[in-house]
Amino acid sequence: MVVFPILHKEVPAPSLTLFVVKAPEIAAKAEPGQFVILRVEEKGERIPLTIADFDRQAGTITVIFQEVGYTTTCLARLAVGDELLDFVGPLGLPSEIENYGKVVCVGGGVGIAPVYPIARALKEAGNHVISIIGARTKELLILESEMARASDRLLVATDDGSYGHHGFVTDLVRQVMEEEKDLAVLWAIGPMIMMKNVAETTRPSGLKTMVSMNPIMVDGTGMCGACRVSVGGETKFACVDGPEFDGHLVDWNLAVRRAAMYRDEEQRVIAYHQGGGCGCH
Hints:
The protein is α/β, with parallel strands linked by helices. It has two domains: 88 residues, Elongation Factor Tu (Ef-tu), domain 3 (Beta Barrel), CATH 2.40.30; 158 residues, Nucleotide-binding domain of ferredoxin-NADP reductase (FNR) module (Rossmann fold, 3-Layer(aba) Sandwich). The protein is 28% helix and 31% strand. It contains nine helices and 17 strands. Strands 12-11-10-9-13-14-17 form a seven-stranded mixed β-sheet, with helices on both faces. Strands 5-6-2-1-7 form a five-stranded antiparallel β-sheet. Helix 3 links the parallel strand 9 and strand 10. The longest helix has 13 residues. The relative contact order is 0.13.
């Protein structure tokens, strides 16, 4: 039986957890932009997490996740030495890495984690990488030193002004677009509203803008249809057609509505377990 032990655990920011998981077969094939689907227990939910890093030699995958519901809360309670029941991947299409010239990588909140391997790969491919990262406050900012090493230029924003630019990453996107007239491609990963706003910021200029969609997923093979998104008027499945799509073609209003479909059910589950219902192991 294949097991997936947790080799390392960190709490890089409040409500965020980093795991390094032993998964040599996945690490051997993982590429920037791909994701894994994991499960904590037999009757547990299957959740997708974009790969934050991979080490082929060590045979490890790094994931960073935020506690937003019952399953991620259970996941965060695991410790070094605990094993994940399922850890499937790499899934999805990898980022299209080539030498474009001058590129921009934008990460917001926990979205900094998946944009990091993309920035690193783009720099290794010879691109001039300008990175923009942001969070609500300084204490929630992650991977700043890693992003600095992967970038030729790094800009930082915080919503409350506690560090870097006082404002949103979109402010810095506008600034970079005004300063740099030869940008080729921009990647934006983070909360859905952030990705939507970045896409709307770049739309007038036509700057190609790639976003990573992370909707509800069940099987990760395109069979269940739970992760469908509308892109350019066509139905796509994030797990097999994505997770990256052209942000100018995504139907953001539909994506936002679908992301909120099970919010009430999630809150009821949390309330049930807080009230003494069956807890996670």
